[in-house]
Structure formats: structure tokens, C-alpha cells
Amino acid sequence: MAAVAPVRRPKRRSIPVGRILLLGFFLVFVLWPLYWMFNTSIKPSDDYLTVPPVWFPTAPTLVHYEAALFAYRGLDGLINSLIISLSATVLSALFGTLMAYSLARYNTGGQHLSFWVLSQRFLPPIGIVLPVFLIYRGVGLYDTHIGLIIAYTVFTLPVSVWMMFAYFRGMPKSMEEAALVDGCTRWEAFWRVAVPLAAPGIVAAAVFAFIACWTEFFFALILTSRSAFTLPTVFRAFIGFQGAQYGEAAALAIVSLVPSIALGVLAQRHLVRGLTLGAVRG
Amino acid sequence: MQPTATISRLKAAGAPPRLSGFAQWADRHFKWLLVAPAVLLILALSVYPLLFSLVVSFINYDFQVPGHAFVGLKNFERVVFDPVARWSLWLTAWLSGISVAIEFVLGLLVALTMVRSFPGRGVIMSILIVPLFISPVIVGQAWTLLLQRPFGPTNYILTQLLGQEVTIGWMTESPWLYFSLIIADVWQWTPFMFVILLAGLTAIPPNLYEAAELDGVNAWQAFWAITLPHLAPMMLLALTFRLLDAIRMFDTIFIMTGGGPGTRTYTASYYLYTVGFTQFHLSQATAGSWLFLIFTALVVMLLVRRLLKTEPV
């Protein structure tokens, strides 16, 4: 990770065999399931049950991708996931930044308000989702895009708020104070001075909110069914399968993991802050 | 800053910016207006549902029984005296405990190998963090593809390695299916431990080690005397965050075992899900989720209190 600068310590002479072995083993452990999934996704169905297994498919095929996207409605799930995750990300980053600024600069509500937001992060989703399901059915938000967008906005808010809270606290106040002295309103000091300076932090918070929405399963499973279902819930179709749909499951998995991995690796400089809600500056 | 400059020019020209009544009001209550959208959303979609569920847990709310009569503690009784509920809580505790412990040790070991710079470190770093960005559903799917009989290659590989026929039902036979669930969790979340602990390790001033080396302290002693005490707050933070997520374990179970065989792999979340959404005893499920919430709150109080005392950063 770029942000965590490697520490240079006095070199010892011996070759660290143990370290290399451990790291090598762990790399294989991480890559092996991904490789096998990719391998399965391009393997013709005839190769599924051969002994020994087909390690490298000789006749790669895209039929599974086609089936996963169209026959299993993976494409619909993909589009829903994009609409819902992007909308929730924008709302979460916007409201999160607003609140974080107020907490960081005006100490709004003291410690209580900020810790109340943090406590939301640790609520078990099962406790929330049952009543939300009942409420959504009552007000007609069940199985709608808007319903899931609102749910995801709320569920990513603690992380957005705390990441931005830490970011604003680490930013010097002097620019905004100068703007206020010059006669700017508080809103102008925030919107025209602080927000542009905090843009990298906002982008990072948005990336983590997006990944959280994109990979979320539990809320989507319970709050959607036939029309607003997201990509992860499409995998329900492959549960308990008897051999016929291995390729489709793998193909859909490959399609859905590409965006979040790409974003995550691009934002890895901010990973430590993202994982610890800003508590640790990576 | 351009707008600031504009305003100072206006001021210099003797024209102070005038605000309308609303703008003045908004400026005075600025800090509360900023927190309002987030707070209102959390109130609407977290606090209100929780209060609503508290009501539901004391009444009859069951898709199979009409009416919403007040039933007192009956819903709670049903959960407390359900052996499956107690089993699921027990399973949640030890499954998450073992997973987190393995993730912690493995994450620490890998972090220790990555502290120093070496060629290829950046690329390896990017690869190691990949599991963090994958949906747990897909992680469950990936391990299903590897483990499930007869398709998965795991039994074949073990047969070759051990020189004898291995035919383990990784998703159905009793000790092995726990192993499968743990390995999927370990695969996904070891990088979490690794990333946080590595950040902690790189923050330890290297001159401490240099001084120790001059004093003739060996690597093992240096680990106990320098690394461990400096890393302790980070370790506590990583363990707390991870444990609080691990006890929610649901997605991989849903995909890999479906709670089965029977109810052997029901975690607390999975149990409450089936009670609520496959049996439709919604009030029993909300009562159970309140009990689980209290259980979680106790863990939070225990761990987060500690965490706030040590104050990393």
C-alpha cells in the first residue's frame, strides 16, 4: 500500500526463507479460489467432472457468461446494483460530508452525537431489517429501487461520517476562518473552501460506500424480490445446484467482482482509514 | 479562493454582503442544518424501526395467525426455550471466535513479512487486499466451487497429496462443514487484520529496533519488548472491529450450507432469518433479534470501552 511507507531497518545478512515461504503460501491461498472461479467460468460444461480436473481449459467458452447475464437475469441485477449503489453512494457521501463538517468544526452535539452515529455501525443488521421489512411493506417501498437506496444510504452513513470527520479534523481551519473573516457565510466557507480541499477524502469515502453497497447481500435479500433485486441476490439461483450451473455461478461472480476490486485497489491508499472508520491514519 | 476575493473586493468598495432573512436564519443554525439530513435518515431507518420492533416483539405479529394481540413475554420465551436458538448463539460465538483468532494470527504473520520494503511489495500488497472488496456471497460461491463434491478439485488434490482416496463432503459432513465456513471467512478477512496490523507495525519508530540491536537484543526479544506493546492498541482495534462483524455471519452460510444439514450451521442471524422469513413468525424473530442486540451491545461495551481507553490513532 502506497500510504504505509515501508520501513527500512538495518538489513540482516541471511535470506529470510521462512518469510518467503509464508508469503508465498498466503499469496497462493488468496489467488487460488479466484483462479479456480475464473477457470470454471470459461470451462465447457463437459469438463466439469473429469478426473483429474481440468486445470487449464483448452477450449475456453463464453456460454456461461451469456447464460448468467440473460437466462439468470444477471444483467438486470447488474443494472439494479449500479443504479442503487451509485445513488446511495452519492447520498451517503453528501450527507456524510455535511454532518462530518458540522461535527468537526462546530463540535455539534458534543461526543454524544458522533458516538451515536458510530454505534449504528455496530448494530446487527438482523435487528434492523425485520422491522424495516414490515415498514417498507406498509408504505410501498418493498422491492423498489428507492427503498433499497434509502436503506443503503443509512447503512453506509456511519462510515462516511466517521471517515470525513477524521479528514476534516486533520485539515487546518485557517482557510475557512480567513473566508469567514472576509465576510463569507458559513455555508460559503464550507462549500467553496472546505469541500474542494477535502475532495480527495470525499472521493475515498464514496469509494468505500460504493463497495459496501455493491457487495451487500442481507438487506437486498430481504427488502427486494423480483424487480429491484441486486447482483449478489442473483446467486440464490445457484444454491443447491447439481452440477449444471457451476459455470454460470462462476461467470456471474467474475462479472460482479471486477468493479469493486478495481475501485478498491485504486483507493488502497485510503484503505486503512476506510476499514477503521478514520480511527487510524494509514 | 475566488469567492473570498470577490467578497473582499465588494467590502473594499463599501458594499457589505447583505443576507436575506432566510439566509440569516440558515447561517445562525448552520451546524444543525448540516447534521439534519443524516440524523433524520438514521432516525427514520434505524431508531424508528428499532422502536417499532420493540412493540412488535410484545404483540402477536405472525403471518400465520391473524390479529395483533398483546402477548407479553411470550415471544421472548419462545426464543429462549428454543434449543435451536441456543445452539445458534453458541455456534455464532465459537465460529466467530475461531475465525477471528486464525485471521488475527495469520494476518499478524503476513504483516510481519511485509514490514520491510522489498521488490514487488506494492504488487503483492494489491493482491493481498483483493478479498476485502468481494461480496461474501461470492466468497461463499468460490469456496463452494472448490470444495463441493464431486465437482470441487479439493478432494482430488488431497487424494494425490495423501496417497489415499479422500471423499469428504465438505458442505455436508459434520466437522468438515465448520472447517469450510471458517476457511471462507479466513480467506476474506485475514487481509483486514493484515492491513490494520501492518499500519500499526510501520508506525513503530525504527530507531527503537536499532537501539535494541545495539544492545544485543535478539529478534524474538525485540518482538516481545517493542513490537507487541506498541502494536497492542491496533490489535485491540482490529479484533474489536472484526469480531463485531464476525458475529453477524450470514452470507456465506446462506450460500454454502443453507444452515444445514438440519440446523447444524444456524448462526444467530441465520436462525432469526429463518424464523422471520421462512416460518413467518415475525414477532418471535424480532424478540430474538432484540435479545441478540442486547448480547451484541454487551460485547460492544466490553470491547469498545477498552478501545476508547487505549485511544489508538
Outline the structure in words:
The complex is a heterodimer of chains A (282) and B (313). Chain A has helices at 17-41, 63-71, 74-106, 110-121, 125-139, 145-169, 174-181, 186-215, 218-223, 231-234, 246-266, 271-275. By secondary structure, chain A is mostly helical. Chain A has 2 domains: 17-61, no CATH class; 66-275, MetI-like fold (Orthogonal Bundle). In chain A, helix 1 crosses helix 11, helix 4 packs across helix 6 (145-169) and helix 8 packs antiparallel against helix 11. Chain B is mainly alpha-helical and 313 residues long. Chain B has one domain (74-310): MetI-like fold (Orthogonal Bundle), CATH 1.10.3720. Chain B is built from 14 helices and no strands. Chain B starts with a helix and ends with a helix. The model of chain B has no long low-confidence stretch (mean pLDDT 87). At the A-B interface, helix 1, helix 3, helix 4, helix 5 and helix 6 of A face helix 1, helix 2, helix 3, helix 5 and helix 6 of B.
Number of domains of chain B: 1
Strand content of chain B: under 5%
Order of helices and strands of chain A: HHHHHHHHHHHH
- Class derived from helix and strand content of chain B: mainly alpha
Number of domains of chain A: 2
- The CATH topology of the largest domain in chain A corresponds to MetI-like fold
Q: Return Rg of chain A in Å.
A: 23 Å
The major sheet of chain A is characterized as: none
